[in-house]
Task: structure prediction
Amino acid sequence: MAGYKIAILISGRGSNMAALIEACQTEGFPAKVALVLSNRPNAPGLTLAQAAKIPTRIIQHGEFESREAFDAVMTEALTDAGVRLICLAGFMRLLSAEFCQHWRDSIINIHPSLLPAFKGLRVHERMLDAGVQIAGCTVHYVRPAMDEGPILVQAAVPIAADDTPDSLAARILEQEHLIYPMAVRMIAEGRARPAGGMVAIKNYNLPAQSLINPPLA
Ligand code: GRF
Result:
């Protein structure tokens, strides 16, 4: 099962990518990173991937006439690499309906909120403005509409009264780095699959504790 090849698509920093690479390099992890693909040549994540000796490709969206043409070249690169699962990790491009259909149920994304709340951008700032007490992050299968699709894993994260968008983002990011590798593991082991609008997951125990914020006295 270590032959289960994944690709990671990035546009920037690549901390989730790094968490996935590290997990895949752990003894016994059922997947391996076959390709890191960036649409931006200067994405800092590319340097991290190269240092970890992962094959990288840069495909710049600006060089293509249409989203479809860009996506078709990505599909070619992903197919050549023998990829079975595509992990979006801070990939800042919308994918065409054709690409989503071609790779249906083989693309996942991580988003820094408890979806379906707070889709889109500036999520941390918007959560603070809304005054919610519990934030979080979500790994989900990708559908053509942004930040939509069957949910694989979520982590709930408490918000502090003095949080700034940056402090909240850092607290959520720690959980992102835990749940993204976990989601990949569940898929590579064949324990998770989309079923209707939801994800069916085999063999797990419901956590005994709930997160209450502010906590019970
Ligand atoms: C993360 O917050 C992720 O949830 C969102 O984009 C950010 C990417 O950060 N989709 P990084 O590049 O993985 O550090």
In short: The first helix runs from residue 15 to 24. Residues 110-203 form a domain with the Rossmann fold fold (CATH 3.40.50.170).
